[in-house]
């Protein structure tokens, strides 16, 4: 096997393990999923998993990086399309269709883990900074007369809104829809260009 083939094989194995970890973590949480669960899900022995990830903590960290990057990429794509706030708030809108239930569960698990794990908070903060940097030119083009600070505040508030929606609407089926519509109208007038 050539060196590039070997590197490709190692990369594919890591991706297989991370994909299995995502399934296990979405089902049982970071602390409930065991290495045995991930071994069964991936079809690899525990020793093989430890060959690529020396500890469960390292596997959690690498999985969080993948989830956070996917979340950033998803938001960058969606927010660059200039969505209406109503679409962001409505869980069944086109805005959310590409973010699966499994991904929703994983995101909630990541946010929960961030509340007690500084390394996870750092990963999320890095991805958020990249997202803000990517969205800043989009917001500047849409609304060139506002200051850089105002753009930053708009983007940051929008991200807070999305995080809140992601955490709240996917677990609460009894949200007051007329109230969400009223808030959406207000936010559309003042938030998005």
Automatic annotation (TrEMBL):
<dbReference type="InterPro" id="IPR009057">
    <property type="entry name" value="Homeodomain-like_sf"/>
</dbReference>
<dbReference type="Pfam" id="PF00440">
    <property type="entry name" value="TetR_N"/>
</dbReference>
<keyword id="KW-0238">DNA-binding</keyword>
<protein>
    <submittedName>
        <fullName>Bilin biosynthesis protein CpeZ</fullName>
    </submittedName>
</protein>
<keyword id="KW-0804">Transcription</keyword>
<dbReference type="InterPro" id="IPR023772">
    <property type="entry name" value="DNA-bd_HTH_TetR-type_CS"/>
</dbReference>
<dbReference type="InterPro" id="IPR001647">
    <property type="entry name" value="HTH_TetR"/>
</dbReference>
<feature type="DNA-binding region" description="H-T-H motif">
    <location>
        <begin position="34"/>
        <end position="53"/>
    </location>
</feature>
<keyword id="KW-0805">Transcription regulation</keyword>
<dbReference type="GO" id="GO:0003677">
    <property type="term" value="F:DNA binding"/>
</dbReference>
<feature type="domain" description="HTH tetR-type">
    <location>
        <begin position="11"/>
        <end position="71"/>
    </location>
</feature>
